[in-house]
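Q: Convert this sequence to structure tokens.
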Amino acid sequence: MGKLVALHPTTTPAPTPNLAAQVYERIKAEIFDFRLLPGERFSENEIAARMQVSRTPVREALYRLERDGYLEVLFRSGWRVRPLDFAQLDELYDLRIVLELAAVRRLCEQAEPPPLAELKRIWLIPVAERETDGLTVARWDEEFHQGLVAATGNREMARMHLEVTEKIRIVRRLDFTQRPRIEATYAEHARILRAVLQRKSDQAQLLLRAHIEASKAEVRKITVHMLYEARRGQENAGQRQSRI
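A:
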């Protein structure tokens, strides 16, 4: 009879982070933060060198971004951030209106008060306490509208709304580089929120529609110069932050 060989349990290696997913998120953030502008070209090698990863996860991330509508692959010429498609943006804003009006109507019809305490904390404040940083207000603006939809409890509506939110993020953030738009957003959000809390459905829907239509109108004013100015502003802010 042969010797018994002791069996040692194999150790399962810890899963490594998904590099392609990380690269995907980083490139998307660069688009949203104006570091990669609509129409701008780049290569896989440039991204791989900047992010210090191999071309394999970069390529996987780029093709995923193409499928999601953020990039275009150019035959033998690398990649390009998709130019702004104003017709598509109009359609996305129209879809926003449909989703958010339905959400507000549902919130006003609910038996229980809508769970909007966090939105009240941010938007129903004295003028002197308002935030002035454009990127912060842009993020809070997204969270305001997402919060209205999420408060309905309809997860599919919230998922669809999130997809729309990401598709229009770059133009929305550009809107908040302008101080008057920040001030208008505070005032308009406060009026919408009060109408919802008071269950004034018709008033809340009218205010919300006017608010989104105003943002939609601003999109049509976007120029390439404005995009480059936004990037310059981000770079200057980053330099100031690095000196602190």
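The beta strands are 41-42, 71-74, 78-81.
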